[in-house]
Amino acid sequence: MTDHALLVPTSRGPVGAVVSEPDGVRRAALALLQGGGRGGRAGVNAVWTGVARRLSELGLVVLRVDYSLEGDSHLIGPERGRDRAPGWKGELDLELLREVIPWFRARAGGLDLFLAGSCYGGRLAMRLAAEEPALAGSLLIVPYLRPPEGRSGWRARLRRVRSGGAPGPSDVGLDPKMVEVARRLLARAPGWALVGEKDAADVESLKRVLGSDGASLEIETVPDVALYPVHYPQVQDEVSRRLVQRLERALRSSEALA
To answer: Could you give all domains of the chain from N- to C-terminal order, each with its CATH number?
Structure first.
């Protein structure tokens, strides 16, 4: 496999990206969206680099993207400021990805397209998947389904996790917009969500709220752990292994993620 570092032109400026391509037969394409912030490309936190390369060896063309203000996309979003409403950066990143994903789809040459994301990236993947005209499936790792938070909210959430567990379902409800997003994306293609037993029960709550509309959402739960945040070696190993296995099964199946 080969990694290609690229700058993708958008209406807001160049977006940094890496495309991992297999040496042999191309079987599908995948956009892999990391959690909020810069995704490490080397060292102990390069979990998504490792995942992309393993998937490429299975025959997937894999896209990784630097979000606005991060990495090689640092020139996009100079309006950083504390006066911005919660969620503004998510809207900017979504705007950029709406241009980057069609570029990637064209580069991949019409292959079946999967969208995958972790936490904040899972939220972005869901919103993109709900709009994607030719979606093979979505793969979500502890997706963030609550109302947008500012930086202080994210820090408080991380403190709660580190002090003994993820915030419980009663802390904040699901974002109604994300419930409708999930309904639309599952009407397009089946989905898979990976959560830890000690993570917040947001995905299970989503499936209950969706009722029959959530029948095609498969939830895989890892016992006795929290997968948020994906910062620790044992968590990274678990997430990597299960995501690769799920995509491998999808590639072997005649019906993606069925």
So the answer is: 2-252 (3.40.50.1820)
